[in-house]
Write a structure and sequence with these properties.
Length: 239
């Protein structure tokens, strides 16, 4: 993901949806996030292959960008179509703006078909005060998206702590999941426990994205959250 401040950060086994053994439980000592302990991953352009990808259950793969200077173009971020039989693949579109031209809508639907994708994930920096406006765009996206595809969005940790409940409620019935990022760049954001303690306020299924190699101790509140669906690890190149 792009480096960004917390308020601009696009918040992707035994636990549902992505962790077999790895996260240090709440109250324990923080540990480094190891890819081999998880089975759901973000795969961005430029990240070299890792053994974790071969055995992954689920992959969120960056497929294209809508850049600020080109609202009518979906810029491809992959040279070809991923062929990953037996894995749940999400096409990720990173967007700098939401006033998409028709060329973007057509390209997204085309790539979903070519990829044989499970669903679409939108990675957009939706600040907490603008969440209601973002939800309006997502309703239009859901309307245009063929019903067979799921819709996922990244989200700010700040949504759970400070968003208007009425704005959060507008996500229900529109998106199938929110993946909340707990890191900035490749480092875990200090104080993440305070934000994630209120993650149950997000009224749709949600996951927490972790940075590979970042420090992490699982907040106890996540285990009691009925809509928590596990973890997605953002893979990075070894240092």
């Amino acid at each position: 993901m792009r480096r960004r401040t917390l308020l601009a950060l696009a918040l992707a086994g035994a636990l549902p949806g992505g962790c077999r053994q790895g996260a240090a439980p709440g109250g324990g000592q923080a540990a480094r996030v190891r890819a081999e302990d998880y089975d759901s991953f973000f795969l961005w352009a430029g990240v070299r292959p890792q053994p974790a990808v071969a055995r992954a259950r689920e992959l969120y793969i960056l497929g294209g960008e809508v850049r600020r200077e080109s609202p009518g173009v979906l810029e491809p971020m992959r040279a070809g179509v991923p062929r990953l039989p037996g894995k749940r693949v999400w096409l990720v579109v990173r967007a700098a703006r939401l006033d998409w031209g028709e060329g973007v809508w057509r390209a997204v639907e085309r790539d979903l078909r070519r990829w044989d994708a499970y669903g679409l994930q939108l990675d957009f920096d939706a600040a907490t005060p603008g969440l209601a406006d973002y939800a309006a765009f997502l309703r239009e996206l859901r309307r245009r998206l063929p019903p067979r595809y799921r819709l996922s969005v990244t989200g700010l940790m700040d949504w759970s702590a400070n968003a208007d409940p009425a704005a959060l409620a507008q996500l229900r019935g529109v998106v199938d999941e929110v993946v909340v990022q707990s890191y900035q760049g490749t480092e875990t954001i200090p104080g993440y426990e305070r934000y994630l303690a209120r993650l149950a306020r997000v009224p749709v299924p949600h996951k927490v994205a972790l940075a590979q190699g970042g420090e992490w101790r699982e907040p106890l509140a996540l285990r009691a959250d009925p809509l928590f669906r596990g973890y997605v690890v953002f893979l990075v190149n070894p240092r």
